[in-house]
Amino acid sequence: MDHIVLSHGHWDHGNGLQYIHGKPLICHPGCFVKRYRKSGDGYLGLALSEKELGERFELQTSRQPVRLSDHLWFLGEIPRQNDFEAQSTKYILEGGADDFIIDDSGMVYVTEKGLVIVSGCAHAGICNTIEHARRVTGVSRVAAVIGGFHLRATDNQTRRTIEYLEKLGVAQVLPSHCTFDPALNLFQKAFGSNEVLTGGCLAF
Question: pTM for the full model?
Answer without folding.
Answer: 0.94
